[in-house]
Design goal:
- The chain has 258 residues and is of the alpha/beta class.
- 46% of the residues lie in helices and 13% in strands.
- It has a six-stranded parallel β-sheet, with helices on both faces.
- Helix 5 links the parallel strand 3 and strand 4.
- Helix 1 packs across helix 9.
């Protein structure tokens, strides 16, 4: 059987498969907060050199609005998308500059829809002024719908360090001594100063591209998260892949250490 025929058969069967997945899902068990590591853009580009525009970062960015639509349908309330890590700045300046402009355009497109509240989380001080200003100027546009965190210049260790620094700064402003601040330090206090403060911790973390590690994503918040690793590169991530992740999550018994 030729590859073309196999592809055609799959195109006919996938809608039926998606329908069966949706019918089998218990949406009362949908995670409230889903975090996604959008991995595999560069490897996707290498695997698809004959496309008219094989830029993996652009292809990955174009997938985001579609993915958020799936989250709307599944009643997910918060989504955190890891777009750029602090480690990514080790890449060539030309690649980083291109990626930052793609991210800037993506944020503009997300905001222009008016469908979601967009919040930037990360070490924004590491970004060029034009992008950090764009991200700092983001404002809530609605009181319902999915809350979308765009993790840009984000690193889990940096987030925890920033949270501790901000906690100590607030204690100093309150006139408390270092010994008192240290005595009062607790996990609850640290949580108040995380980039995602006020939001529920993610119940489900998804990583595409087949890599089975978090790479520092939401280190503090993921203590009780369920992980789902998908073989597809992010630009190839389909609704059926998302439904599979939700199904896997709904079938797990979350014991929280018990």
């Amino acid at each position: 059987m030729s590859a073309t025929i196999r592809k055609f058969i799959k195109s006919l069967l996938y809608p039926l498969y998606e329908w069966r997945l949706v019918r089998a899902l218990d949406f009362s068990k949908t995670p409230h907060h889903v975090g996604v590591i959008l991995d595999g853009n560069r490897r996707w580009a290498k695997a698809n050199p004959n496309l008219a525009d094989p830029n993996g970062h652009k292809a990955g960015a174009s997938k985001i609005i579609e993915f958020l639509g799936w989250c709307d349908e599944a009643d997910v309330r918060v989504v955190t998308l890891w777009l750029l890590s602090t480690d990514n700045f080790k890449r060539s300046s030309a690649e980083i500059d291109e990626l930052l402009h793609i991210i800037g355009d993506t944020v503009d497109e997300l905001a222009a829809t008016g469908r979601w509240n967009i919040k930037a989380v990360g070490a924004l001080d590491l970004l060029p002024d034009w992008l950090s200003k764009k991200l700092n100027d983001l404002k809530p546009v609605r009181n319902d719908g999915v809350e979308v965190n765009v993790a840009i210049s984000y690193g889990g260790r940096r987030e925890i360090v920033d949270a501790v620094k901000n906690y100590l700064s607030e204690e100093e402003r309150a006139g408390h001594s270092l010994s008192q601040a240290s005595a009062d330090l607790s996990s609850e206090n640290i949580s108040k100063f995380l980039y995602t403060a006020g939001q529920p911790d993610p119940e489900l973390l998804i990583r595409t591209s087949g890599e089975q590690r978090l790479g520092g994503f939401m280190l503090w918040q993921s203590a009780s998260s369920e992980f789902y690793f998908c073989e597809a590169y992010w630009p190839d991530f389909r609704r059926v892949d998302f439904l599979r992740a939700l199904r896997a999550y709904s079938l797990r018994q979350r014991r929280f250490g018990s």
